[in-house]
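note to self: dont lose this again. the chain is below, predicted strucutre after it. 289 aa total, dont forget to put it in the shared folder this time
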Amino acid sequence: MFAAKPHRYLVPFDGSFELAAASPHPSSTDVVKQVLKKRLRSSVENIGELQRVLYADNRYALLLVFQAMDAAGKDGTIRKVMSGINPAGCQVYSFKKPSELELDHDFLWRTAKRLPERGRIGIFNRSYYEEVLIVRVHPGILRYQRLPWQSETIWNERLASIRDHEQHLARNGTIILKFWLNVSREEQKKRFLSRLDEPAKNWKFSSGDVKERGHWDRYMQAYEAALTATSKPWAPWYAIPADNKHYMRATVADIVEQTLATLDISYPEVDEAERIRFAEMREILTSEE
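---
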Protein backbone atom coordinates (compact mmCIF):
# COMPACT_ATOMS: atom_id res chain seq x y z
CA MET A 1 0.00 0.00 0.00
CA PHE A 2 1.19 3.51 -0.81
CA ALA A 3 2.99 5.38 1.97
CA ALA A 4 3.94 9.05 1.76
CA LYS A 5 7.59 10.05 1.79
CA PRO A 6 8.92 12.72 4.22
CA HIS A 7 8.29 16.30 3.13
CA ARG A 8 8.74 19.69 4.78
CA TYR A 9 4.99 20.39 4.62
CA LEU A 10 3.77 16.89 5.47
CA VAL A 11 1.38 16.89 8.43
CA PRO A 12 2.78 14.38 10.98
CA PHE A 13 1.05 11.02 11.32
CA ASP A 14 1.38 10.90 15.10
CA GLY A 15 -1.19 13.58 15.94
CA SER A 16 1.40 16.19 16.89
CA PHE A 17 0.40 18.77 14.25
CA GLU A 18 -0.13 22.31 15.53
CA LEU A 19 -1.71 24.74 13.13
CA ALA A 20 -0.06 27.71 14.79
CA ALA A 21 3.33 26.33 13.76
CA ALA A 22 2.32 26.04 10.09
CA SER A 23 3.33 29.29 8.44
CA PRO A 24 1.28 30.61 5.49
CA HIS A 25 4.45 32.30 4.24
CA PRO A 26 7.24 30.48 2.38
CA SER A 27 10.86 31.12 3.28
CA SER A 28 12.14 34.32 1.69
CA THR A 29 14.79 32.30 -0.15
CA ASP A 30 12.09 30.25 -1.90
CA VAL A 31 10.08 32.99 -3.60
CA VAL A 32 11.99 34.02 -6.71
CA LYS A 33 9.09 34.32 -9.15
CA GLN A 34 10.88 33.24 -12.32
CA VAL A 35 12.48 30.26 -10.58
CA LEU A 36 9.07 29.15 -9.27
CA LYS A 37 7.49 29.48 -12.71
CA LYS A 38 10.28 27.37 -14.20
CA ARG A 39 9.81 24.74 -11.48
CA LEU A 40 6.09 24.66 -12.16
CA ARG A 41 6.54 24.26 -15.93
CA SER A 42 8.93 21.36 -15.40
CA SER A 43 6.59 19.60 -12.96
CA VAL A 44 3.55 20.16 -15.18
CA GLU A 45 5.37 18.59 -18.14
CA ASN A 46 6.46 15.59 -16.07
CA ILE A 47 2.98 15.15 -14.55
CA GLY A 48 1.57 15.03 -18.08
CA GLU A 49 3.99 12.28 -19.09
CA LEU A 50 3.41 10.29 -15.90
CA GLN A 51 -0.35 10.61 -16.25
CA ARG A 52 -0.21 8.88 -19.63
CA VAL A 53 1.64 5.97 -18.05
CA LEU A 54 -0.84 5.90 -15.13
CA TYR A 55 -3.72 5.73 -17.62
CA ALA A 56 -2.12 2.97 -19.68
CA ASP A 57 -1.06 0.95 -16.62
CA ASN A 58 -4.68 1.09 -15.37
CA ARG A 59 -4.06 -0.24 -11.84
CA TYR A 60 -3.89 2.88 -9.68
CA ALA A 61 -6.14 5.91 -9.32
CA LEU A 62 -4.93 9.24 -7.94
CA LEU A 63 -7.23 11.36 -5.77
CA LEU A 64 -6.21 14.96 -5.02
CA VAL A 65 -8.20 16.68 -2.26
CA PHE A 66 -8.04 20.47 -1.90
CA GLN A 67 -9.37 22.24 1.20
CA ALA A 68 -8.88 25.86 2.20
CA MET A 69 -10.51 29.04 3.33
CA ASP A 70 -12.08 31.22 0.64
CA ALA A 71 -9.62 33.00 -1.69
CA ALA A 72 -6.75 30.66 -0.80
CA GLY A 73 -6.29 29.75 -4.47
CA LYS A 74 -7.79 26.28 -4.92
CA ASP A 75 -9.20 26.90 -8.40
CA GLY A 76 -6.05 28.55 -9.72
CA THR A 77 -3.82 25.85 -8.28
CA ILE A 78 -5.89 23.08 -9.84
CA ARG A 79 -5.90 24.88 -13.19
CA LYS A 80 -2.16 25.54 -13.24
CA VAL A 81 -0.94 22.22 -11.85
CA MET A 82 -3.19 20.14 -14.11
CA SER A 83 -2.64 22.23 -17.23
CA GLY A 84 -0.42 19.63 -18.90
CA ILE A 85 -2.54 16.51 -18.53
CA ASN A 86 -4.96 14.87 -20.92
CA PRO A 87 -8.49 15.96 -19.90
CA ALA A 88 -9.75 12.47 -20.81
CA GLY A 89 -7.80 11.09 -17.86
CA CYS A 90 -8.88 13.65 -15.27
CA GLN A 91 -12.10 14.49 -13.42
CA VAL A 92 -12.68 17.60 -11.27
CA TYR A 93 -15.60 17.90 -8.87
CA SER A 94 -16.59 20.77 -6.61
CA PHE A 95 -18.79 19.97 -3.61
CA LYS A 96 -21.03 22.70 -2.24
CA LYS A 97 -24.39 22.61 -0.46
CA PRO A 98 -25.79 19.03 -0.52
CA SER A 99 -28.88 18.34 -2.61
CA GLU A 100 -32.06 16.74 -1.27
CA LEU A 101 -30.98 13.41 -2.76
CA GLU A 102 -27.54 13.66 -1.14
CA LEU A 103 -29.11 14.41 2.24
CA ASP A 104 -30.97 11.11 1.96
CA HIS A 105 -27.62 9.27 2.18
CA ASP A 106 -24.66 9.16 4.54
CA PHE A 107 -22.20 12.05 4.33
CA LEU A 108 -19.64 10.08 2.28
CA TRP A 109 -22.08 8.99 -0.42
CA ARG A 110 -21.95 12.00 -2.71
CA THR A 111 -18.16 12.03 -2.91
CA ALA A 112 -17.88 8.24 -3.17
CA LYS A 113 -19.86 8.45 -6.40
CA ARG A 114 -17.20 10.75 -7.85
CA LEU A 115 -14.08 8.78 -7.01
CA PRO A 116 -11.65 8.33 -9.92
CA GLU A 117 -11.53 5.05 -11.83
CA ARG A 118 -8.28 3.13 -12.16
CA GLY A 119 -5.88 4.94 -14.44
CA ARG A 120 -7.42 8.36 -13.81
CA ILE A 121 -6.77 11.42 -11.68
CA GLY A 122 -9.70 12.67 -9.61
CA ILE A 123 -9.70 16.13 -8.05
CA PHE A 124 -12.00 17.19 -5.21
CA ASN A 125 -12.33 20.97 -4.86
CA ARG A 126 -13.66 20.73 -1.30
CA SER A 127 -14.75 17.27 -0.26
CA TYR A 128 -16.23 15.10 2.49
CA TYR A 129 -14.04 17.12 4.86
CA GLU A 130 -16.67 19.88 4.68
CA GLU A 131 -18.67 17.67 7.07
CA VAL A 132 -16.07 18.20 9.80
CA LEU A 133 -15.25 21.80 8.85
CA ILE A 134 -18.18 24.02 7.89
CA VAL A 135 -20.69 21.74 9.61
CA ARG A 136 -18.56 21.77 12.75
CA VAL A 137 -18.35 25.56 12.68
CA HIS A 138 -22.10 25.76 12.01
CA PRO A 139 -23.55 22.72 13.85
CA GLY A 140 -27.09 23.93 13.13
CA ILE A 141 -26.62 22.39 9.65
CA LEU A 142 -26.96 18.98 11.29
CA ARG A 143 -30.70 19.65 11.71
CA TYR A 144 -31.10 19.26 7.94
CA GLN A 145 -29.12 16.04 7.65
CA ARG A 146 -31.95 13.74 8.80
CA LEU A 147 -29.83 11.82 11.26
CA PRO A 148 -31.81 9.34 13.39
CA TRP A 149 -29.62 10.25 16.34
CA GLN A 150 -26.76 12.63 17.08
CA SER A 151 -23.94 11.56 19.36
CA GLU A 152 -22.04 14.03 21.51
CA THR A 153 -18.90 12.64 19.88
CA ILE A 154 -20.15 13.08 16.29
CA TRP A 155 -17.03 14.89 15.09
CA ASN A 156 -14.67 12.17 16.32
CA GLU A 157 -17.00 9.58 14.81
CA ARG A 158 -17.00 11.33 11.44
CA LEU A 159 -13.23 11.66 11.49
CA ALA A 160 -12.99 7.93 12.24
CA SER A 161 -15.32 7.21 9.30
CA ILE A 162 -13.10 9.33 7.05
CA ARG A 163 -9.97 7.49 8.20
CA ASP A 164 -11.61 4.12 7.54
CA HIS A 165 -12.92 5.28 4.15
CA GLU A 166 -9.51 6.53 3.02
CA GLN A 167 -7.72 3.41 4.21
CA HIS A 168 -10.21 1.26 2.30
CA LEU A 169 -9.56 3.28 -0.86
CA ALA A 170 -5.80 3.03 -0.37
CA ARG A 171 -5.98 -0.74 0.07
CA ASN A 172 -7.71 -0.93 -3.29
CA GLY A 173 -5.24 1.14 -5.28
CA THR A 174 -6.31 4.77 -4.84
CA ILE A 175 -3.39 7.06 -4.07
CA ILE A 176 -4.67 9.94 -1.90
CA LEU A 177 -2.95 13.31 -1.56
CA LYS A 178 -4.65 16.03 0.50
CA PHE A 179 -3.66 19.68 0.32
CA TRP A 180 -4.62 22.32 2.87
CA LEU A 181 -3.80 25.66 1.25
CA ASN A 182 -2.82 27.68 4.28
CA VAL A 183 -3.71 31.31 3.56
CA SER A 184 -3.36 33.95 6.27
CA ARG A 185 -6.26 36.13 7.39
CA GLU A 186 -4.38 39.21 6.20
CA GLU A 187 -3.79 37.80 2.71
CA GLN A 188 -7.41 36.69 2.43
CA LYS A 189 -8.47 40.27 3.15
CA LYS A 190 -6.22 41.56 0.34
CA ARG A 191 -7.66 39.06 -2.11
CA PHE A 192 -11.25 39.88 -1.15
CA LEU A 193 -10.55 43.59 -1.72
CA SER A 194 -8.97 42.74 -5.09
CA ARG A 195 -12.14 40.89 -6.06
CA LEU A 196 -14.19 43.94 -5.14
CA ASP A 197 -11.90 46.43 -6.90
CA GLU A 198 -11.36 44.59 -10.19
CA PRO A 199 -14.49 44.17 -12.36
CA ALA A 200 -13.12 40.97 -13.92
CA LYS A 201 -12.96 39.43 -10.45
CA ASN A 202 -16.34 40.62 -9.14
CA TRP A 203 -17.98 37.31 -10.00
CA LYS A 204 -15.67 35.54 -7.56
CA PHE A 205 -16.92 37.57 -4.61
CA SER A 206 -19.82 36.65 -2.35
CA SER A 207 -21.01 38.58 0.69
CA GLY A 208 -21.15 35.23 2.46
CA ASP A 209 -17.36 35.02 2.19
CA VAL A 210 -16.97 38.00 4.52
CA LYS A 211 -19.53 36.54 6.91
CA GLU A 212 -17.58 33.28 7.14
CA ARG A 213 -14.41 35.27 7.77
CA GLY A 214 -15.95 36.23 11.10
CA HIS A 215 -15.64 32.58 12.16
CA TRP A 216 -11.93 32.39 11.33
CA ASP A 217 -10.74 31.10 14.71
CA ARG A 218 -13.35 28.36 14.81
CA TYR A 219 -12.41 27.28 11.30
CA MET A 220 -8.76 27.08 12.30
CA GLN A 221 -9.68 24.87 15.26
CA ALA A 222 -11.72 22.63 12.96
CA TYR A 223 -8.89 22.39 10.42
CA GLU A 224 -6.37 21.50 13.10
CA ALA A 225 -8.62 18.75 14.45
CA ALA A 226 -9.26 17.33 10.97
CA LEU A 227 -5.65 17.38 9.79
CA THR A 228 -4.36 15.97 13.07
CA ALA A 229 -6.83 13.09 13.06
CA THR A 230 -6.66 12.10 9.40
CA SER A 231 -3.10 12.60 8.13
CA LYS A 232 -1.90 9.04 7.62
CA PRO A 233 0.85 7.43 5.52
CA TRP A 234 -1.76 6.18 3.02
CA ALA A 235 -3.69 9.49 2.96
CA PRO A 236 -1.30 12.32 3.93
CA TRP A 237 -2.15 15.95 4.44
CA TYR A 238 0.22 18.68 3.27
CA ALA A 239 -0.06 22.14 4.87
CA ILE A 240 1.04 24.32 1.94
CA PRO A 241 1.88 28.01 2.49
CA ALA A 242 -0.65 29.85 0.32
CA ASP A 243 0.18 33.53 0.71
CA ASN A 244 2.45 33.31 -2.34
CA LYS A 245 0.50 31.72 -5.21
CA HIS A 246 3.55 30.92 -7.33
CA TYR A 247 5.20 29.09 -4.46
CA MET A 248 2.00 27.26 -3.57
CA ARG A 249 1.42 26.00 -7.11
CA ALA A 250 5.01 24.92 -7.63
CA THR A 251 5.01 23.06 -4.31
CA VAL A 252 1.75 21.22 -5.00
CA ALA A 253 2.94 20.29 -8.50
CA ASP A 254 6.22 18.95 -7.11
CA ILE A 255 4.41 16.72 -4.59
CA VAL A 256 2.09 15.34 -7.28
CA GLU A 257 5.00 14.75 -9.65
CA GLN A 258 7.16 13.01 -7.05
CA THR A 259 4.27 10.81 -5.92
CA LEU A 260 3.49 9.63 -9.44
CA ALA A 261 7.19 9.01 -10.05
CA THR A 262 7.36 6.59 -7.10
CA LEU A 263 4.56 4.33 -8.37
CA ASP A 264 5.45 1.06 -10.06
CA ILE A 265 3.63 1.98 -13.27
CA SER A 266 4.65 1.30 -16.85
CA TYR A 267 3.19 0.92 -20.30
CA PRO A 268 1.73 -2.59 -20.73
CA GLU A 269 4.01 -5.01 -22.57
CA VAL A 270 2.78 -6.89 -25.63
CA ASP A 271 3.09 -10.68 -25.47
CA GLU A 272 4.80 -12.74 -28.14
CA ALA A 273 1.59 -13.88 -29.82
CA GLU A 274 0.48 -10.26 -30.18
CA ARG A 275 3.88 -9.28 -31.59
CA ILE A 276 3.46 -11.91 -34.28
CA ARG A 277 0.06 -10.44 -35.16
CA PHE A 278 1.69 -6.99 -35.26
CA ALA A 279 4.15 -8.27 -37.85
CA GLU A 280 1.29 -9.67 -39.91
CA MET A 281 -0.63 -6.40 -39.75
CA ARG A 282 2.50 -4.47 -40.67
CA GLU A 283 2.95 -6.65 -43.76
CA ILE A 284 -0.67 -6.11 -44.79
CA LEU A 285 -0.42 -2.35 -44.35
CA THR A 286 2.89 -1.95 -46.17
CA SER A 287 1.69 -4.07 -49.09
CA GLU A 288 -1.26 -1.76 -49.77
CA GLU A 289 -1.01 0.22 -52.99
